[in-house]
Amino acid sequence: MCRINVGGREISPGDDTEMFRSWLTDDAYLTIAKPSALPVNGSINLTFSSDTASYSAPREVYVTARTMGMSKTQNENYQLTWEFPVDSGFNYFVRLHFCEFQIEITKEGDRVFEILLANLIAETRADVITWSSGNGIPVYRDYVVSIGKKGNQKQQNLSITLHPSPSWRTLYSDTILNGLEIFKLSNGFSLSGPSFDLTSGPNIHPRKSPVTKKRTIIVGVVAPISGFITVSLLLFLIYRIHSNKFANSRGPTPPSDICPRLSLREIKTATNNFDKSFIIGRGGFGNVYKGFNNASSTPVAIKRLNPSSQQGVLEFRTEIEMLSKLRHQNLVSLIGYCEDKMEMILVYDYMVHGTLRDHLYNTNNPPLQWEQRLKMCIGAAQGLHYLYTGPNHTIIHRDVKTTNILINEKWIAKVSDFGLSKMNDLSNTHISTAVKGSIGYLDPEYYRLQKITEKSDVYSFGVVLCEVLCARAPIDRTTEDHMQISLAEWVQHCYINGILDQVIDTHLQGKIKLASLLKFGEVAINCLASEGIKRPTMSEVVYGLELALKLQGSEMNGNDENHANDSSTIDYHVLFSSGESMKVGR
Question: What is the rounded CA–CA span in Å between residue 457 and residue 408?
């Protein structure tokens, strides 16, 4: 069984005063999304109807929600999806909780959307106001979904997808969900035991887009009152019996033969019992500590999952499996891992100089010279190229960014963080997968088609090249110039208009040979092509960057007219991967 407070915090049994239930956050299960978690509306007075009792869900479930943002048109091509691993060959009772509490949504037709369960249509015209008869009135909808057997596959994903209706049918192109519950039923439609690990997060499998799949779902509407009371009482007993067992379950342990397994005692010794003074970084996974190997006094980096987090389990195992198989001078090395007493910890070689971003902006570190930046970009590109050249599989990183490129004591760049990586058989041209990555680096084609190839990494690396050149973040929401919010779009605009030299890092102005700048800019712009097929391969990227380094190699002369500076306008041709050429500048 599973209960989710969508868009809100975790709710403990003590906070669910009437039924003593646990409600998890939805972050670990959210996959394909353009999401926006609405803040708690504590001022709203909820009105419970005769069809929805006050104990149906805690009040907090109904005053938090997740939406896509109240646009009138721009969300039509997107969807909001959650994935839950369940046992094959069973029926599942699914209850979706809704409550409109935004002041803009008061009438029928204000927010209308489709609901798909297991990629099959459950509702073609979901309108919470129609169902509940008003704003601030909770309502739920019940369904029974059949998950058939699929070969020898013991588990599959039960997906819940919300998609905005066309603009002619709804005032706002948006969706909303406040909470959900999933219960496993026996083949006789009675309640069965818990069917999946509540802390493990989704295991994504390729699937066709549910937006275009127009089949009818087998839906059973369960009697709302008596059925709910019966189910709730049974589930309460199951919760009391099984809560300890399943709270500690995180799925199978990675095989010990693929990577050394370390004890928690060793980790605590290396970090002085996780002393805060040993923390050298923080991320979505948790804290990163600097520790020391007792045998050799060698420094190591220790990444520890936040013990209170429900996220990172899948990423944890993916990183172990990926890095244990990879060996390259431009990839970080995994020394070992620890999975003990609810702790999940990864141990790497220590990178003395931190991340590439640490040396570009918002830092007290001295600025990198142009040659240094070029060599680091070449190293990172070589590491990524290695991922794509396996004899049977390619590995797509999916989260290429400057914080995932680390610098060792010799100033060699190494690609890190393989938690989102995907392995692709060479017979496939792409992988259909849930969209994941970082804002500002995400390939628009990947986001639109939900199909990822190595060219998606190439796009992200193009954004990295822009950061290296301009020393600014990929997204800058503080700028008043709308065109400059996205670094990738701004660099493309400047390149086409012949003013690329005017947006480079001020520390580099007058220090880059014009030929080197133009070659570097050409590589970056080609990486950012809107269509993946027009982007270069990573081997071509490496070649272009090496050429930019060679063009920079001759002696610099401060009076040389062939150096880029902050007052010139360049007259040159933009070269595209397709072979087309366009002259720009004056």
Answer: 23
pLDDT level of residue 242 (50, 70, 90 thresholds): very low
Q: Residue count of the chain, please give it.
A: 586
Question: Which residue positions form the known binding site for ATP?
Answer: 303
At what angle are helices 454-470 and 370-387 packed, to 10 degrees? 170
3-class DSSP assignment, residue 344: strand
Q: What is the pLDDT of residues 485-524, one digit of tens each?
A: 889 999 999 998 889 888 999 999 899 999 999 999 999 9
Single pTM value for the model: 0.54
Instruction: Decide: helix, strand or coil at residue 122.
Output: strand
Q: Is 399 among the residues known to form the active site?
A: yes
Segment holding 492, helix H or strand E: helix 487-496
Helix (H, G, I), strand (E, B) or coil at 179: strand
As its CATH architecture, domain 2-247 has Sandwich (2.60)
What CATH code would you report for 357-584?
Answer: 1.10.510.10
Homologous superfamily of 264-349 in CATH? Phosphorylase Kinase; domain 1 (3.30.200.20)
Q: Tell me: the pLDDT tens digits for 278-332?
A: 988 876 678 899 988 765 577 889 988 876 554 567 777 777 877 777 778 899 8
Matching residue, tokens 């008869």? 133
Following DSSP, what letter does each residue of 465-489 receive, concatenated? Answer: HHHHHH-S-SB-TT-S-GGGSBHHH
- Choosing from 26, 110, 142, 399, which is the catalytic residue? 399
In this structure, what token pair is assigned to residue 575? 């070269």
Per-domain residue ranges of the chain: 2-247, 264-349, 357-584
Q: Binding-site residues, please?
A: 303
